[in-house]
Write a structure and sequence with these properties.
Chain A is an all-alpha fold. Helices cover 85% and strands 0% of the residues of chain A. Chain A starts with 6 loop residues before the first helix and ends with a helix. The model of chain A has no long low-confidence stretch (mean pLDDT 84). The relative contact order of chain B is 0.09. Classes of the chains: A mainly alpha (47), B alpha/beta (461).
């Protein structure tokens, strides 16, 4: 089927792409911090 | 070979669907040759077909063309019964949405994208959604947004959100808005709490506002030339998937959803009815059966023991949903539950009344079953028995029908608060009314009940 893409919808996607990329970055950073903290906790426990 | 173009197949310049000698074909036009060939050579079709996501097809060559400018013609595997989103239960629409996103993701993985995301590109076959529009794919131009994003939201996300968060009956709005429920309407009808759900906020509410604000804007100017990479596109698909998965609906509370376990039959009567239905269906040996008012599909399953394809129609969304869930859980094949109000069955709809077929024009079927249904149409809705007999004769060649007399508790309940204006609603009146269109081939009282089962054959059939 041929459809007419609406301008507002295309523009919103650019905005959403930014939001989702930012969210992914925050999640990735959070996961890294959690990994480091878990590592520290484990090494202290091992001592 | 006389080819007849399917009337609803006119929007896409890349090809069209036609029938010839009872077989369905799809012509691929030369204007789409590069995209089609690229899709074939990429292995995308093979991958999707192997996974049971896309309808299988065979290339029969340009010799089968039904119009000018043909590149080739394909013959898709037939779908036993074409159904429409406004006839699906919540779960059927949700599964169709997830299938569309799955197909989009796999297409992106191979460098393609869905050109459209219409719910009409999906059919339900053997308890699973199946993508049927083979020409929906084109090569993905890196950086381009998804042209079908709005269509996906209007065809799937908005109706599902309304059915889940507002009222499951909102699904019927799809019959009015064939190209999806408009975003602004969906946004206005959804409860305020939906603004707090990220999926609804982004894909429905902000989407509706963006549509209004940038109605005639230039995309390049507003976005400053920013593009959407493949990863961003995949994240968009994942976000839509999360939004769809976050929507749920529990089928409960309606009288019909409880009917299978909360009816007036004794165990003996139920067993006798099941035995009789099995016997009568076997006598007809139908290939296709339509079970009208089939509730959660108890007798559809009996018919399926004989028939290849059974469609179970019911007006109650909870009954249809429960039936669909059972089909999925038990991996049943050849049984399709659909929502249909027989007092207002699906009409011919869309452009020239021909884009979406009426229930009647999707027939006839070999056998119509109308069990415990007549009193609802004749007494609760005043349909004259003669009119009912004529309409059923337009649907199928054989009829398995149950007459429920006025002395039955169900009919007594219907007449509790209204005048009995149905003097002809008697076994004799029923037989008289059906005599013009049908021949009674067999009849038997159901043991331990006052109800009678009739097997009839259409007079001109």
């Amino acid at each position: 089927m041929y459809i007419d893409p609406a301008a507002g919808s295309l523009i919103l996607q650019v905005f959403i792409a930014g939001v989702l990329a930012a969210t992914a970055s925050v999640k990735s950073a959070r996961d890294s911090v959690l990994r480091v903290l878990r590592g520290l906790f484990r090494s202290r426990k091992d001592k | 070979m006389i080819a007849e173009r399917v009337r609803g197949s006119f929007r896409d310049p890349s090809g069209f669907v036609f029938t010839s000698d009872g077989t369905l074909y799809r012509q691929v036009n030369r204007s789409f040759a590069d995209e089609y060939d690229a899709c074939v050579s990429s292995g995308l079709y093979d991958d999707l077909i192997a996974r049971g996501l896309l309808v299988a097809h065979r290339d029969v060559g340009v010799g089968f063309a039904a119009g000018p400018d043909a590149h080739t013609v394909i013959e898709p595997t037939p779908v036993p019964f074409i159904s429409y989103p406004y006839e699906w239960s919540f779960g059927q629409l949700r599964d169709a949405a997830l299938l569309t996103l799955d197909v989009q993701q796999r297409a992106l993985d191979r460098g393609f994208v869905l050109r459209d995301a219409s719910a009409y590109n999906v059919q339900h076959v053997d308890g699973r959604p199946l993508f049927i529009d083979t020409l929906s794919f084109e090569r993905h131009k890196d950086g381009d947004p998804w042209a079908a994003y709005k269509q996906f939201c209007e065809h799937f996300l908005v109706p599902l959100a309304l059915m889940s968060a507002r009222d499951v009956r909102c699904g019927r709005l799809q019959r009015e808005w064939l190209d999806g429920i408009p975003l602004d309407l969906g946004s206005a009808l959804l409860p305020r709490g939906s603004w707090l759900r990220p999926g609804m906020l982004l894909h429905v509410h902000l989407h509706a506002r963006a549509m209004r604000r940038y109605e005639s804007a230039s995309v390049a100017e507003v976005t400053g030339g920013r593009r959407i990479g493949k990863q961003a596109m995949l994240r968009l698909v994942a976000s839509l998937r999360d939004a769809v998965r976050g929507l749920d609906w529990r089928p409960a509370g309606t009288a019909w959803a409880r009917y299978a376990s909360d009816h007036d039959y004794s165990d003996q009567a139920m067993d006798a009815k099941r035995r009789l239905v099995r016997e009568y269906v076997a006598a007809v040996a139908p290939r296709t059966v339509w079970d009208l008012g089939g509730n959660t599909g108890t007798f559809s399953r009996v018919a399926r023991e004989v028939a290849d394809s059974v469609v179970c129609f019911d007006a109650d969304p909870a009954a249809v949903e429960l039936n669909y869930r059972e089909v999925r859980e038990r991996k049943e094949t050849g049984l399709l539950p659909l929502q249909m109000d027989l007092m207002n069955p699906s009409p011919g709809n869309g452009w020239a009344h021909e884009e979406r077929l009426s229930l009647e024009s999707r027939g006839p079927t070999d056998l119509v079953m109308a069990l415990a249904l007549v009193h609802h149409l004749a007494i609760a809705n005043n349909v004259p028995l003669r009119t009912l007999a004529d309409w059923l004769a337009r649907l199928g060649g054989s009829l398995l029908i149950e007459f429920v007399p006025k002395s039955d508790a169900q009919v007594e309940r219907l007449l509790t608060n209204r005048a009995d204006i149905f003097p002809d609603y008697t076994p004799e009146g029923f037989e008289r009314a059906f005599d013009a269109a049908w021949t009674i081939e067999a009849t038997q009282r159901i043991d331990d009940s006052q109800r009678t089962l009739y097997l009839m054959r259409r007079r001109d059939g």
